[in-house]
Amino acid sequence: MPRRALAPALLLLGSLALTAACSTGSPPADTAPSPDGPSRTGGNDTGPQVDLTKLKGVNIVSDSSTDRSCPWATSYPDVPGAGKMTAAMKKDVEGRLAVFLGTDIGGPPNCGGSAGAAGPEAPELNVSFSFLVASGDVLGVRLATVDRTSNADGVDTRAYWYDGAAKNYRPSPALIADDSRDAFVAALKKRLEKQEGVTPDTIEASLGDREYRDTYLDDMAFTADGDLKVDFDRGTVGVPPAGRISVTLPKATVTPWLSDFGSRAQKQTTDPDDKLDLGAAHTPAPTVAAQPDPGEDTTDCSKVKCIALTFDDGPAAPETGTLLKYLAQYKARATFFVVGQNVAAYPDIVRAEMKSGHEIANHSWNHPVLTNLTSAQVRSQLERTSAAIKDATGKEPTLFRPPYGAIDGKVKAATSLSPVLWDMDTLDWKHHDPAKVSQTVVSQAAPNDVVLIHDIHPTSVAAVPEILRTLTARGYHFVTVSHLRATL
């Protein structure tokens, strides 16, 4: 059957004219932190901003699907020198994904027992990260998990700590000295007793047993003032309707109870050093150089064959840098739909993308199903990412791609960005085979197609030279999504 010249993804762009303006600079009302009481932040968000330029050589380990019936995305940082902490995060993330997909019990994936189902009841797994502190010999990272197959609210947060002096991973309870653990827990219980939805029975069930209580103390971090904030998942220290519970112990109260590592973690949070030194051998961070900008694109896609290659979920090191070299060899332009948390870690790569003549677009902060979020959360996801893009490039994006293609009226009304879907999904996240990815594109390509690839996978990047070589020989021009729209 012949393909229409005007691709469906481009038709969608025209039909989804978005007019709602969005405010910037203020967090959504449903994410405001509170010192004590229900935590709506998904973790401790009251600490100082971490200077990510200290994280030399960091590798963001990301993976995701594009399957709307079984959406999942995972991401965590691998920081040189903190291998044992990375191993702990990797084990937890892979374990959560296996449970979500059902592969932990053998047999084919069944997506949380649902076998995959589109719509508002569809499952979703999202694991994202944030840095708590990265200074001196202390590294702290929080993983936030949303699992919509969970019987609770599906939100779980956990803090991971690394002690560079001891060269060892530390769980949150290690912030407290062993001989002060009872006094610390007693202070927590006293504060918890004042919380709505917390009863003596719920406190005793979670913190009463010395052998198991550390399990519930897995999300602890310092604020910018040196207070210690402890977050509890829903249904742990309180009844489920009470939601997540947060307790903050003042600096003066908690400081005498800190371990040596806890004292260093507190100091590096309140008064960070100029650099992070975890004792790893110095390895220069790979630099991504901008490629020559092909200049103004005069291609008229109404007269010649055009195709828009789009790359999701990056930037990634070193994959994106390699990809830029391949594109430059053919003077090919592309559109990069970047994830905000990766932009914050790799602003230099995003700058290189722009300086190489490519288009930068918004793909949310941490790849959630936007239709599962409130309007305020959608705005936060997109605004944070647009701000990170502007910080890196000096230019705000005009396009966004909703993860998994999940978009509805609520999402459209939450932003003035124009949505972009795709005509061809290479399924490269499922088939890590360069030959299969390239064959998919060259065998299915049609004029004005928008093609979905991911630059976080080395195998996908390796497929690009064959795509460029074959389609160039067939007379195709590689243009950005915006250029394709403008010339059709």
Instruction: Please give the alpha-carbon distance between the first and last residues.
Output: 22 Å
- The SS-based structural class is alpha/beta
Main sheet?
A: 6 strands, mixed
Secondary structure tally: strands: 18
What strand order characterises the main sheet?
2-3-4-5-6-7
Q: Gyration radius, to the nearest Å?
A: 24 Å
- Beta content comes to 15-25%
Q: Percent helix among the residues? A: 25-40%
By DSSP (H or I, 4+ residues per run), the number of helices equals: 15
Low-confidence stretches: 1-46, 115-120
Task: Return the average pLDDT rounded to an integer.
Answer: 88
Gross morphology is elongated
Break the fold down into its secondary structure elements and pairings:
Blueprint: H1 8-15, E1 37-38, E2 59-64, E3 72-78, H2 83-101, H3 111-115, E4 125-135, E5 138-147, E6 155-163, E7 168-171, H4 181-192, H5 200-207, E8 220-222, E9 228-232, E10 245-249, H6 251-254, H7 260-270, E11 305-312, H8 319-329, E12 335-338, H9 340-345, H10 347-355, E13 359-362, H11 375-393, E14 399-400, H12 409-413, E15 418-419, E16 424-425, H13 434-444, E17 449-454, H14 458-473, E18 476-478, H15 481-486
Parallel strand pairs: 3-4, 11-12, 11-17, 11-18, 12-13, 14-15, 16-17
Antiparallel strand pairs: 1-10, 2-3, 4-5, 5-6, 6-7, 8-9, 9-10
Helix pairs in contact: 8-14, 10-11, 13-14
